Automatic annotation (TrEMBL):
<dbReference type="GO" id="GO:0001503">
    <property type="term" value="P:ossification"/>
</dbReference>
<dbReference type="GO" id="GO:0051216">
    <property type="term" value="P:cartilage development"/>
</dbReference>
<keyword id="KW-0221">Differentiation</keyword>
<keyword id="KW-0964">Secreted</keyword>
<keyword id="KW-0301">Gamma-carboxyglutamic acid</keyword>
<feature type="signal peptide">
    <location>
        <begin position="1"/>
        <end position="19"/>
    </location>
</feature>
<dbReference type="GO" id="GO:0005509">
    <property type="term" value="F:calcium ion binding"/>
</dbReference>
<dbReference type="InterPro" id="IPR058704">
    <property type="entry name" value="BGLAP-like_C"/>
</dbReference>
<keyword id="KW-0891">Chondrogenesis</keyword>
<comment type="similarity">
    <text>Belongs to the osteocalcin/matrix Gla protein family.</text>
</comment>
<dbReference type="InterPro" id="IPR035972">
    <property type="entry name" value="GLA-like_dom_SF"/>
</dbReference>
<dbReference type="InterPro" id="IPR000294">
    <property type="entry name" value="GLA_domain"/>
</dbReference>
<dbReference type="Pfam" id="PF25890">
    <property type="entry name" value="BGLAP_C"/>
</dbReference>
<dbReference type="GO" id="GO:0005576">
    <property type="term" value="C:extracellular region"/>
</dbReference>
<keyword id="KW-0217">Developmental protein</keyword>
<feature type="domain" description="Gla">
    <location>
        <begin position="52"/>
        <end position="98"/>
    </location>
</feature>
<keyword id="KW-0597">Phosphoprotein</keyword>
């Protein structure tokens, strides 16, 4: 009987120790409502900076270096790309597109 009382007390202590919610977990506002609405979730991102970043990316796309433009043109044309693997993109561009002149 004595051991049964001791075991019951130990079980009650174990339950109290493992199920205890500290005050620190209650301090968080997420405890009551863990989900945010869409507006509050995106509040930390400034819309102006997003638009400015997109505009800067578009400007960078428009003003490419001539070598990058030539390389992309050569990559789109399969024989030029194969020639570039052996001789380099500058030589391949000259070989396939360098003599093109419009009058």
């Amino acid at each position: 009987m004595r051991t049964l009382v001791i075991l019951a007390l130990l079980a009650a202590l174990m339950i109290a120790a493992t199920c205890y919610e500290s005050h620190e977990s209650m301090e968080s506002h997420e405890y009551l409502n863990p989900f945010l609405n869409r507006r509050r979730a995106n509040d930390f991102i400034q819309s102006d900076s997003r638009l400015r970043g997109i505009a800067q990316e578009r400007i960078r796309e428009r003003s490419k270096a001539p070598q990058e433009y030539q390389r992309e043109l050569c990559e789109d044309y399969y024989p030029c790309e194969m020639y570039a693997f052996r001789h380099g993109y500058a030589a391949a561009y000259k070989h396939y597109f360098g003599r093109r002149r419009t009058k």
